[in-house]
Amino acid sequence: xxxxxxxxxxxxxxGFMGKTQVETVAKxxxxxxxxxxxxxxxxxxxxxxxxxxxxxxxxxxxxxxxxDIDAVFIETPHFxxxxxxxxxxxxxxxxxIEKPMAHSVALCDEIIAKGKEKGVLVSITxxxxxxxxxxxxxxxxDQGAIGRVRQILDFHLLAGGLVKFPKWQSDKENLGILFGHxxxxxxxxxxxxxxxxxxxxxxxxxxxxxxxxxASSMALMTMLDGTVVTLWSSGEMPPPSFPRREFSAMIxxxxxxxxxxxxxxxxxxxxxxxxxxxxxxxxxWAGKGxxxxxxxxxxxxxxxxxxxxxxxxxxxxVTGWDGRQAVAAALATYESSRTGxxxxxxx
Length: 347
Ligand SMILES: NC(=O)c1ccc[n+]([C@@H]2O[C@H](COP(=O)([O-])OP(=O)(O)OC[C@H]3O[C@@H](n4cnc5c(N)ncnc54)[C@H](O)[C@@H]3O)[C@@H](O)[C@H]2O)c1
Known about the structure:
Shape: globular
Order of helices and strands: EHEHEHEHEHEHEHHEEEEEEEHHE
Helix content: 25-40%
CATH topology of the largest domain: Dihydrodipicolinate Reductase, domain 2
Bound molecules: nicotinamide-adenine-dinucleotide
Mean pLDDT: 96
Number of domains: 2
Low-confidence stretches: none
CATH architecture of the largest domain: 2-Layer Sandwich
Number of strands: 15
Largest sheet: 9 strands, mixed
């Protein structure tokens, strides 16, 4: 049965992504209303609450006890996702968990199991799936435009080093760039191929000798359908990094080629000639800043899918299982690098 009233939303963590989600829900998502936020630092949450005319709860328990909140968005450092998601589920709230879902596969499984038990939806913010060029690539692949996908070279190359990211990302418990950022790539590869990881072999390192987390990795993987994948992820490219390689992928199908740049163009070659199949409008970082509606398009599509699923009582477009499988592949890359062995994930 379709829910007719607006769903009440709470956001946990009011940093870069928390503010992004509050703005997205408040201004663009239909069928949902922002009710309250919580941040461990009230100096961060109070101005957000004042800006949107909503409550700034003093504790997580306070936010989760609110009867007017149906779903929460978890927008905190990685190692907090699992405990906060479990607390929200225990309080009967649907959860949208930022990527990566949790810092172990066992915790992902626990979140999925508890969500089922409580009858609430669990989704993960794999917002790359909602970016214009990725969406078009998926549509064309599903239509058979390049035939069956056989090989992928996936890039996630960012410039500047760990200092460029929030400080907590350099703490050991948050693991590194492959886990924290390239987790989107692990998900996109599964989504585009419609297959799952069979084997993972990886080499992980950091160019910064002081770093206690991984910052650069290469993974060689096979999918259950035989597709061979290489993923190159780094957060420490000397500026300005390579062009077209922030969230990009070169894809070889049986009948054609694709070159996706999630922040630029989607190129396709099916007849001996490269053509532009989709184009991402650039974000006006310098003028409109990080809340530029162009940047929020993908978050709006993503959040809308989750809200519609709750209202229509069906599974969300991105499930807890999707979050779990991406975490499993990323952690297997670290394990492979530690042990020097290829890891078999699924048979
Ligand atoms: N989907 C995407 O495209 C995307 C993009 C960037 C970041 N992220 C993800 O968003 C999450 C947050 O990243 P960010 O860049 O916003 O970080 P951030 O540092 O800007 O914000 C994190 C916020 O969490 C708060 N916080 C810390 N401990 C807390 C606690 N125990 N309870 C409540 N609040 C607490 C901090 O005070 C801070 O305001 C991460 O999971 C990150 O991977 C996703």
